[in-house]
Structures are given as structure tokens and as C-alpha cells.
Queue: 2 jobs
Job 1
Amino acid sequence: MALKFGFWSEQETQVGQSYARRLHELVDEVRLAEKVGFDCVALSEQHVALGGISSSAPEVVYGYLAAVTSRVKLRSAVTLMPQRINHALRSAERLAVTDILSHGRMEFYGGRANTTIAMRAFNVDPAETLAQMEEGIALLRRSMREDIFTFEGKYYQIPPRQLVPKPVQKPYPVIGIAATSERSHNWAGSEGLAVMSHSIYQGWEIQKKLLTAYRKAWKRDEQGPLDRPRVGIPLFFGIGPTDQKAKEDYAEPLMHYARISTDAYPRLAKLADDYSYMSESVPSMERAGRDWDYLLNQSATTVCGSPDTVIRQIEQYEALGVDEVLLHLDSVPHHKIMEAIDMVGRYVIPHFNDKNNIVRPTEEILDTIRAMRPQNSGSSKKAV
């Protein structure tokens, strides 16, 4: 099965630039991504965020994108599942409506929230986010799968009701979670969910361990849409005509993102037992924010270089058996993102998915032709 490519954005806006303009730029980026061959568009959900990240209402953006795209999958990556941020039944309603408007192109990935600034803004208790995510996804699936449903849990108690309308995709769209702990990988596998896996910059061995845990725990949900495990890995990404140019354009933005995106993790590790595992990754997170070589080559999170280098790097993730890579194209100005999308579509995606349509050197083709001729044909080397 060919490796899938996703365009992943948090709508990051550069200092001095307009949030409003950035949102319209995102639409242009998505349309180009679809045109050049990306398989899905994944939008983050972040609230009252610092540092320029402004994807506060991706569910609104999906409705707009459904009208201006025709092929690419539209994925929440992720919808935050704490009850005070998104009631699970409202998430089911929004998912169903956008699935209808997009003619069956929605995918839903949930997450528990990983910033204290958002949790405090919505009065979310960090000790409850994991349980609320798991219960919320159970409600989400039941409401879409069953005609009239009921639900009795710790956080949700719903008498007999009907989800109106229901999604186009039956029994429901692909559902997954973002997972960084071994526990969440195990849970996703046991529930027959897809997973967007991340090692929190801890490197290749930890990433392999997490994927092994997920696959080992996998158990098909006979009432769900997936018949096999589905693994996606988000990759922080940069590309340029040469390795040096890519480094010049992307090294500092990517290290800066590593610093700001994990800033809350040490605090979270102290606030609730369910987040305590994050303390183990603190040294790796700190190193990723200041050591370019570690970030690029050892953290198992980042891809950056010329098209040829990027291809070799992505092949390492393909060797892990992942089904898709989600390229985080953000942290640089809009024109650089558009250039990156074009280069990925021109050079990278065809290498993995359309190799027989890539122009190769004439001598390479002739050598193959000559090698395929009968050895006793007596024809000259130059003959074709």
C-alpha cells in the first residue's frame, strides 16, 4: 500500500502579520496541496494560544474547505475532547454535517489537550482529560452507529436520542487519537482506532516501541470502519533546493517550534498522574529546541533538506511500517509554505506513489533495456 501524505497546519501566524490574512492563506495552501497530490489536510485545534498559533475553530474551516476542494480528506488533528471544551455529542454533530457537505471526506482524530493555558481558560481539570477523551470517543461512535442510542458513563448520561443528521460514511468516518504515551497506544489498538503517533522528541527506539505497542494491542472493532491498524506520524518539515538552503530557511523555526510546542509538558507532568510520563521526555524536548543535529537526525520527529534528502529521510519512517506521514508546514511565511507544498508534490510524493511516471536518466533506462535482451541476440551494445 502506497504511503499517504498529509498537509498538517496549526495556522501559525508570523510576528507582525494578520491573523485574518493568515486564515485566507491557509485556504490557498490547502487548495494547492490537493492539486499536487496530498491525500489529506489535517488541522489542529488550539485555544488562546501564544506564539502565533491561531487554529481555534477548525470545524468552521472544514465546512469552508469542503466547498473549495473535491478530493482531499479533511481531518481534525486533533479535536480536543475535554467536556468543557467540546461536548462529545456536539463533536459528533459537527463531524456528521461536515461529512455530508464534503461528500464523505471527513476523518476524526481526538486528543485530550496538552496546554495548561487552554485547560485553565476552559476550567478543565488535567486529571480528567484522559477519561473524558476515552468516554467521549465511545459516545461519538455509538451516536453515529446506532439509530436511537443511549449512553451511561461517568461524564455523559444521555437518554434515548437520535443523532440528526448522521454521516455519509457508514458506520462512521475513520476515528483515531493522537498518542504520545504507551498507554494511549495500547488503548487505541485495543479499541480498533487509528493512531497519530509521536515520541515527544525521544528518538527512534521510543517511536518503534510505541508503534509495537499499538500493533500488538490491535483488535478490530467489528462495527467500525477499519479492518487493520492505521499509523500516522506527524513530521516537522522543511524543504529547499539544497540541504544548506533548507537548513538556512527552516532550522531556527523548527527548533523554535520544538521549544514552544512542548513548553507546558513539564508543568503538566506535575499536575496529574495521567501526564506524569511526560517528565521522561523533558531532556529530549530541551535538546530538540537547541541542537539541530539531534532534532533532525535522532529525535524521529523532523524532516528537512533537499528533495533527495527528504525522500531518504521519509523512507526511514516508511521502514517503520507507517501508513501516512503528516507534514507540518507552518512556522515560515506563506510563500515558503507554498514553495514547500509544490516541491513535495513535484518530487517527493511521486517517488513514493508514482515511480513509473518519474523521468529517469536515459542511460539508466537503456541499461535496463539492454539487460533484458536475450544474451545470445548478437546485437550491438548501442542498439536498442
Job 2
Amino acid sequence: MKFRFCFTAAAVLAASMVSQQASASLIVEANYADMNGQSVQLRHKGANSTVDAGLMQFNLRADTDLSALPFDVNGMSVDAFCVEFTQGVRSGWHSYNLVETSQVFSATQSQAIERLYTAYHPVVGDATSNAAFQLALWEIVHETSANWNLRTGDFRVRTGGVVRDLATNWLASLDSIESQFSLYVLTNPLSQNQLVFSGVPLNTPDPVTSVPVPATLGLFGLGALMLFRRRKA
């Protein structure tokens, strides 16, 4: 039986800020537009399936507040990679939470994904590298053994040739890479989670988790400054 869960249609991004709270997430929506990759055969926990592996593009709504997003977008679209190939993508427009990878994955997984992005996001763009990045991401997320190997373990790639070898080489290099980006995941309990393929450099203010200064505190500070100047005069 042939399964094509990852790229059947739909779901990802338009923004609206949740009130001024620490660790607040963005509620986002969007619609599937395109995918560039290739078909591969996988074996996961004893079950075989055929899926499309590659980079997906989602269009944003015209009223999306791009300034609220903690990463860059291409015009009015955003790229993403599938996280849950075993779950289907719901068609149409749906609401997703945009959260940091650390809120979805273990520390080891989150760090590995950030290192993978740091080292190889500059070369992603063609069908081969897109599929390789997707396979490497799935291996990190779904493999439960101590070693990442696309030929053995709970998650295996049965076809792919060059793509599988490329992903294997990338995974083998991760220990020597220092992460330079924070990444985000679009989550929905009824639809496939997506890794947003656009990072923000570390130590950059993050609108998803930053805590705005209360307006009353700002006014108090301004009033104190004016009083100080008046007494000095």
C-alpha cells in the first residue's frame, strides 16, 4: 500500500500575537502551495510506506503581520519540512501553534535539528538536498536507538541511493557543528507538525518568548525621569 501523508495539501501560517505573556506562542494559519523533493520508501517500526520527502512551501494570508514572526519569510510564503510522516496533513486553512523546537523534542533532538539547519540550510534548494534534509530530520525525530543510521534501527530508508547517502553523511557530521540558530515548529493535534525552515540567529530577541515591558512601568519610568530633570533645574 502506498501512503503519501506529508504533502497531500495544506496547513501552516498567518500570525496573531497571543497577549503579552512569557512563553506565549503565536497562533498561525496558512495553505499548502508546493513541494520540491522526491519519493522514497521507508520502514518504520516494521511497517513499510512510500512518501514524498522534500521542502514544502506554504502561502500566508494577505493580512499576516510579518513583523510578529520570529523568522524571515519569502514574500508572503514560508518553507517547512514534515515532522510527522505517519500523520496526514489536513487540507484547507487551520490554526497552528508556533513553538520552539525545545517544546516539541528532547534536548538531544532539538540540538541536533538546530545543528543540521546551521550546517546545511545554505545548500538546500534542489530536489536531492531537499529530500536529504527531510530524511535526516525524520531520522533525528523518529529513531530511538543510540545511533543515527538510515539503514538500520526503527526508522530506515529502503530506497533513495544518493539522497540516503547524503543524509547519512550530514547526520555523521552533527557532533562537530555548533548550533547558531533557534528553530520553530507548527503544531496541531489533528494535523502533521511542521518544522519551519527559517531560523533566527541565537541571542536575537524572540517575539514568541520575550516578555514586553508593561505599559504602566514604562509610564512610571518616564514620570520619574521628568521629575528628576525638574528638580535638577
